[in-house]
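Suppose you are handed a protein chain with no further information: no name, no annotation, nothing but its sequence. What can you learn? This example shows the usual starting point.
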Amino acid sequence: MPTVSEIMDTMDYGPSVEDSSAVRDWLKQHERFGHFIDGSFTPAGRGFVTSDPATGETLAQISQGTAEDVAAAVKAARKAQPKWAKLTGYERASYLYAIARVIQKRERFLSVLESLDNGKPIRESRDADIPLVVRHFYHHAGWAELMADEFPDHSAIGVAGQIVPWNFPLLMLAWKIAPAIAAGNTVVLKPAEYTPLTALAFAEICQEVGLPRGVVNIVTGDGETGAALVEADVDKIAFTGSTEVGRAIRAATAGTGKRLTLELGGKSPFIVMEDADLDAAVEGVVDSIWFNQGQVCCAGSRILVAEAVAERFETLLTRRMETLRMGPPLDKSTDVGAIVHPVQKDRIVTLCKQAVAAGADLVGGAPGEACYVAPGYLREVSPANPAWSEEIFGPIATLTTFRTADEAISLANNTRYGLAAQIFSESATVATDLAAQVKSGVVWINGANMFDAAAPFGGMRESGFGREGGRVGMLDYLSGPKPDSVKEKAPKTPKAMTDGAASGKGIDRTEKLYIGGAQKRPDGGASYRAASGDLVPLGNRKDIRNAVEAAKKASKWAAMGGHGRAQVMYFIAENLSLRRDELGAKHGKEAVDAAIRRLFHYAAWADKFDGMNVQTKPGYLVNVIPQPFGIMGVICPNDAPLLSLVSLVAPAIAMGNTVVAVPAQDDPVAAFDIAQVFDTSDLPGGVVNIISGPKDDLAAVLAAHDDVAALWYCGAKGAEAVEKASTGNLKPVWSFENLDWTKQSAHGQRFLDHAVQWKTVWLPYGALPAGTGSVAY
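A reasonable first move is to predict its three-dimensional structure. Written in structure tokens, the prediction is:
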């Protein structure tokens, strides 16, 4: 044993291992775990073992869930849901509060169990994960209590199927279960195959607090169990995991009507500007990617450093990297624990070898014994290197330099993902300007990996859609008033006519596609006869491409701000009213009057659909900002040709989106008449583009187009094909039945909710209260 003087010379840490005896006693009592269904544990069945990744020691035997097990859990949840939803908000809140209190009392036990099963350092599970679990149940107990006041006319969606990953086993459980049951839903949750133990301990807590049977059900197993849950009779699937599996779930749920929340992979940029506090930025890298072994989907794994400070930053980074302690997860002095499983370790090592073979230089990052990989980073990584685009999901970052802020944003957005971003700058102006431009659902300024139950979390692009946390997250577990639906008139198959075939019929062929603010002939030169008898253009894939390009060029529409957009929309309504008699005679005066009111309604909302500042931990201004998707595809029903188009286009453009619309297939003439009104109303060219033709064919092209960020599809048939077509780029697709469009303004907020994506920006604010330091709660 070293002497005190020797310790003072070396400053080495001695062992400080957390006592795990209580957890090991608990594991010995169980040894084999069954599923938790209808309030009790089933007998253990055939399955697999879960192991301590730091040592390889077997911790417990876990049952492999079958389709029958999943069906039994869903049946129990379905039976329990009506009674649970009928409880008062106060009664549901009392259960959530009780769960939070018991977790608080067992924080040490759950922290040790999490670190044993997952491999993360005890200080991460003890100081970050479990306190956040408690926070989520307290926070959502509050939402349960306030639901009748804050979400009037909303109700639970039913039974939620939930699938959580292995990087934050208990925290992800809390993120999903707390809002679901607060809203009156019941759940069936499948924990990750590698890390099921804290979910099973949570099941015991549900028993202890007397949670009604069937409200929470937990079925363990591998991917086959998860697939069975996706196929089961549930009303919603909430999944956190890989983009690849997310695509499979999108395809499996297409056309089923199941609600879907996907929180998927990330390759988040970590931007260090020239004026950044470099010491703080280095600590941000440590917090973001090394303390948690890089096993975080939102980790800032792509470090982008201003060229002027890159050398100094690397010096500080490598110096700090050398001080990190890699060791046993239960040692309180450990900074970097074990990778969750040998399969994951092998993947990290393989990706690093591929990156080096492609020209990168690996600093650190050596694989160790068992499931250990040392912290490191890859230098000289270009966008063509596989490490630039592939999610390594380990303690390995990439480092690239830039010269200007524009280049930083270009590099940051050069990815298919859009989950999170970190920005370090001492200038609030610079930092917030970058935050507005980076394409990600969460942005942390001068900090990293900050979470709170009040702050919505979720991604853009191939990082998924939907949000978890706060008011926005609650809405993903609620249904509003169901609008009156109307059966859609089945469209006829358009019969193509060439110029020669159409000539001599006694009808002037005046209608053309509307692209970029101008009338244009269809690319193929073909037309078809509308229900009105007019000849209308038959659009195709190339016309959609041209319309998307025009919509992209009109991106300044969002920058006009809500007030500017409202003025234009009021002007459109004014000019439409001037043509009321003319268009009323052609399309019906009631439809024209309703369209005018619809434009006024959404013009009024354009500058009033606000974001929010949410209360999180002290010292941060956390803004939740509604942002337009960008280019939206809008597929109109075959009914109410004028009114349905206006009712769908108006909320989309009010929120700053540009639109490619497919009007009523049988009679798109009304859409082109409205386009003439757009031309006289200062609507910038390209904000609205209209392509007539076969509804489902054009919808499939829009769904597959990577530059179309979101799609609305109205109609009972065809939704399955469109949703499946979107699996490649994972754009959010909102499909709904045809409506009574004369009453649509009563549900206008629903359309606005689907016309935006939410960005959560964390900005340091003021001085931390004395004594809070860096403690989360």
